[in-house]
Write a sequence for this structure.
């Protein structure tokens, strides 16, 4: 019995000694050492990320669209940017497809092909002028629902830009396309095609609005490329080429 009580006394004494030693050790620790000790006892703490402000979201979206439109304009305006890109390629106007079929059947396929090439060259030439047009649209837009766009699909910002600017882009872009088509001499390649067709007995005369057709296709092609760029920025950290893109698209929102 005496031996048992002695063992209990010894264990209590040892506990007091350990507690006292820990107290002295903690008291003498630096703040850094206390943090390390706390991490051991409770696990490391993760700094709380500062929530994105609406201004940051807007700045990030505008930057993403600026980067996207710059890259898209550059790619589309290169030689064969439309013509050899199957997603952007502008075919013979569908509402005048009878012209194509009849003229090719008469042995003038080469003239048809040259006309189609010129359609695409016109779009490529017009794309050189698209950068400033998109930039002005981006600067002037107001994004009240920035977080909705940020959390949306891979092309949510592109769709927003398309919805808000397409009408204005058509108005502004049409004369640019017209100038581009004049520069590549589209009329010279269209005239022999349509003249050959109109000489065929009994055919209904065709007069498609080529300016409007190329304008629509050129803008649609540019938005395809902009959507590609937006998805890259959302998915690939390497594509986030500045701090605001890294902050906004690297955030957990």
């Amino acid at each position: 019995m005496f031996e048992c009580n002695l063992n209990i006394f010894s264990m209590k004494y040892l506990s007091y000694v350990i507690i006292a030693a820990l107290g002295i050790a903690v008291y003498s620790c630096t703040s850094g050492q206390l943090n390390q000790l706390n991490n051991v006892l409770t696990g490391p703490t993760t700094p709380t990320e500062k929530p994105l402000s609406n201004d940051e979201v807007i700045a990030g979206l505008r930057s993403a669209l600026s980067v996207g439109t710059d890259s898209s304009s550059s790619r589309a305006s290169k030689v064969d940017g439309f013509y050899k890109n199957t997603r952007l390629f502008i075919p013979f106007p569908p509402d005048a497809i009878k012209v194509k079929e009849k003229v090719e059947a008469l042995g003038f396929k080469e003239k048809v092909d040259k006309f189609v090439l010129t359609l695409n060259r016109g779009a490529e030439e017009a794309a050189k002028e698209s950068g400033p047009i998109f930039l002005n649209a981006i600067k002037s837009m107001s994004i009240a629902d920035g977080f909705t766009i940020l959390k949306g699909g891979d092309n949510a910002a592109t769709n927003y830009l398309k919805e808000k600017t397409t009408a204005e882009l058509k108005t502004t872009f049409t004369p640019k396309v017209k100038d581009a088509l004049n520069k590549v001499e589209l009329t010279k390649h269209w005239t022999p095609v349509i003249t050959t067709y109109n000489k065929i007995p009994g055919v209904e005369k065709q007069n498609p609005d080529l300016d409007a057709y190329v304008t629509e296709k050129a803008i649609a092609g540019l938005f395809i490329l902009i959507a590609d760029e937006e998805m890259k920025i959302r998915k690939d950290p390497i594509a986030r080429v500045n701090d605001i893109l890294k902050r906004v698209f690297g955030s957990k929102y």
Remarks:
- Confidence is low (pLDDT under 50) at residues 1-6, 8-29, 40-46.
- Residues 54-249 form one domain.
- The chain has two domains: 2-42, 54-249.
